[in-house]
Automatic annotation (TrEMBL):
Belongs to the LysR transcriptional regulatory family. One of its GO terms (molecular function) is DNA-binding transcription factor activity. Keywords: DNA-binding, Transcription, Transcription regulation. It comes from the Bacteria. Residues 1-58 form the HTH lysR-type domain. Pfam families: HTH_1, LysR_substrate. InterPro entries: LysR_HTH_N (IPR000847), LysR_subst-bd (IPR005119), WH-like_DNA-bd_sf (IPR036388), WH_DNA-bd_sf (IPR036390). This is DNA-binding transcriptional LysR family regulator. One of its GO terms (cellular component) is protein-DNA complex.
Length: 306
């Protein structure tokens, strides 16, 4: 049974007349009559009683009419949904982000604007470290991701720098280097940082922001003392707040655990910054993902210093 047969049946049932239904459908009456007879044969029931003034539904025809109208409505709803999907106005968008990327005001602003523009797109959000997000994107479990410095660049993924921001040194608020620093606006020298225990956020063997920090130290002949390596930025700041060591974080993390952490500029920070990187698949065909990426690029261009 095809959808055309249902439409023909519905038109005849509504008008109660083969000729008027044929005119409404824009076809000749004989082909319409043949279609109705073929439908009756397929169903094995008589749908209409013929009389001189037209046709009337049988009991079976009235039962079938309810089903036919429901099926036509379902088909129309499906067509409308698919039209919205084809325009990227519906569907699913799976976005991953690191905690430090999420801390940047750009991230919630972008999600809020996307939800306002595409309210029928289901957003699936996942927070993880940069390595896990990159692997999830490469495996097709995410449509796009926002992270800082890429830790790997698998084939088939694209990496775009949307924004850049400076880094800050995070230290326990009761640390000797923090005491009195509110009166001293001078940045902390990199050499002073390397004299303290440093916490790194990285997966063993993976590069990233903290690999850049270590490279900068080594380039200046400094030997940093690493006291801990963790997977996530929030774990990093929890350890700083607990007095385990100092760390370097994107400036947008300023204010996290403000009661226990002091933040200051790094004297050599001009050679070290924290980008906000969009990662996506080169062959992406998910329209919500393409629309989201376009939105991110536009917002980044409109607010380069956000």
């Amino acid at each position: 049974m095809d959808i055309r047969a249902l439409r023909y049946f519905a038109a005849v049932a509504e008008t109660g007349h083969m000729t008027r239904a044929a005119e409404q459908l824009g076809i000749q009456q004989p082909p319409l009559s043949l279609q109705i007879k073929a439908l009756e044969r397929e169903l094995g029931v008589l749908l209409f009683r013929r009389h001189p003034r037209g046709v009337a539904l049988t009991d079976a025809g009235r039962l079938f009419q309810a089903e036919a109208l429901r099926m036509l409505q379902d088909m129309e709803s499906m067509k409308q949904r698919m039209t919205r999907v084809a325009k990227g106005q519906a569907g699913t968008l799976a976005v991953g982000f690191t905690s430090s990327a999420a801390a940047h005001r750009f991230m919630p602003d972008a999600l809020r604007e996307f939800r306002r523009a595409y309210p029928d797109v289901e957003l699936q959000l996942r927070e993880d470290n940069a390595a896990e997000l990159t692997e999830a994107l490469a495996a097709g479990r995410l449509h796009c991701g926002l992270l800082r410095v890429p830790v790997a660049r698998p084939e088939g993924l694209m990496f775009e720098t949307l924004l850049r921001e400076p880094v800050l040194v995070a230290m326990p608020s009761d640390h000797r280097l923090a005491l009195g620093r509110d009166k001293d606006s001078r940045p902390l020298p990199l050499a002073k940082l390397c004299e303290e225990g440093i916490i790194l956020v990285r997966r063993p063997g993976a590069p990233g922001l903290y690999a850049d920090l270590l490279a900068l130290c080594h380039a200046k002949g400094l030997r940093p003392r690493v006291v801990a390596e963790v997977d996530r930025m929030m774990t990093n700041l929890n350890l700083v707040a607990a007095g385990v060591g100092l760390s370097v974080v994107p400036a947008s993390m300023h204010g996290v655990h403000a009661h226990a952490i002091a933040y200051t500029r790094l004297a050599d920070g001009g050679q070290l910054d924290a980008p906000l990187t969009l990662v996506s698949r080169a062959d992406e065909d998910n329209l919500p993902a393409l629309n989201f990426a376009a939105l991110l690029r536009r917002l980044a261009q409109e607010n380069p210093g956000s």
